[in-house]
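cron nightly-structures :: item 1 of 1
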Amino acid sequence: MSTYRGFSTSGNEFASVSHTDFNLVKRDLMNNLNVRKGERVMRPDFGCVIWDMLFEPFTDDAHSTIVDNITEIGEEDPRLEVIQVVPSSYEQGIQVAMTLRYVPNDLTEQLLFDFNQEAHQVTTGTIQETSASSQQGMATGTGY
């Protein structure tokens, strides 16, 4: 089994900038979600559409557009399997609850991404984390 290694200087945790395995994959996903669609040079189809939808009404069309875009972003990474994407509006932006499976370790985690109008960046928290070896219904992680 391979181990993925990388580093990130984003966030306030400069004491440890190295990431491995699922933490690295989650950081890569957050980096992709922080890019506005069309913002990347020579890749006009790359990025997240939510940044252009923050001030728009949260309609059924907006819901399906967000689900399709977030699913596409997640499926671009072969280390991930997107199981579920559930967007919703909240006070100052859009929240996306996303259930992901980290393929190499068969680890499933439910994350909550906050797209905030004021912060202009995605924040995340773990809702639930399970592995294939744990019993169904048992969960660890920090809750929201």
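cron nightly-structures :: done
The longest helix spans residues 60-75.
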